[in-house]
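User: Here's a structure from my thesis project, written as structure tokens. My advisor, Dr. K., wants to see whether a designed sequence matches the one we expressed. Can you design one independently, without my sequence as a hint?
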């Protein structure tokens, strides 16, 4: 089994630990050492302790002894995730790819390092998933899509076939991206929005149709 830490003990960090538990029930793979977090809230400290996991201190302190340890980033904010990945990799830590056994993965899908795929997520055939992408519960990525680094797809969001999600893009819960549409780098699609045309980089859209 490989030693693993999850960076960030907030909601998605603990959901990532659930993915680890599910993987290990299917095939023992990861030895979860605990969570690394620079400033955990009192509520999250209590939640981590209730699940019997360890808090290992902040990233800078842990990285000094973390060479060779695998890591997953359980932080939703893409710029923070990118910064954390840079620090971890400079320290010789190794990005882990975590795919829940109940996720559905199509033929010839390419899933990058550091990706977290939660339960019931679906990835279609010939999809490319970049580094440190988060695919939350029941999200769907259609055939022939390109999902670039540090994208966040929240629960039940649906990306139709042939779409491109630029680096750091964020899709809100229950949003829909119509076929062949591009969402630019660091753009945000609001919850339940329906995107019918390309979204420029850095823009936030919401509503039906999204605008």
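Assistant: Designed independently from the structure alone:
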């Amino acid at each position: 089994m490989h030693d693993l830490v999850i960076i960030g003990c907030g909601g998605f960090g603990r959901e990532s630990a659930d993915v680890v538990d599910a993987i290990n029930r299917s095939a023992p793979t990861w030895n979860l050492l605990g969570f690394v977090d620079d400033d955990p809230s009192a509520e999250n400290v209590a939640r981590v302790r209730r699940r019997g996991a360890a808090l290992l201190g902040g990233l800078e302190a842990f990285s000094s002894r973390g060479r060779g340890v695998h890591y997953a980033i359980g932080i939703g904010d893409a710029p923070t995730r990118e910064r954390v990945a840079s620090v971890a990799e400079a320290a010789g830590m190794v990005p882990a790819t975590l795919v829940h056994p109940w996720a559905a993965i199509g033929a010839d899908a390419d899933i990058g390092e550091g990706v977290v795929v939660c339960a019931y997520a679906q990835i279609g055939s010939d999809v490319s998933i970049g580094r440190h992408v988060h695919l939350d519960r029941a999200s769907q990525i259609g055939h022939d899509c390109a999902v670039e680094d540090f994208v966040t797809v929240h629960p039940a969001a649906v990306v139709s076939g042939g779409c491109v999600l630029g680096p750091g893009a964020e899709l809100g819960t229950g949003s829909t991206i119509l076929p062949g549409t591009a969402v630019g780098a660091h753009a945000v699609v609001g919850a339940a929005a329906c995107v019918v045309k390309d979204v420029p980089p850095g823009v936030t859209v919401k509503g039906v149709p999204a605008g």
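When you compare it with your expressed construct, this may help: The first helix runs from residue 11 to 26.
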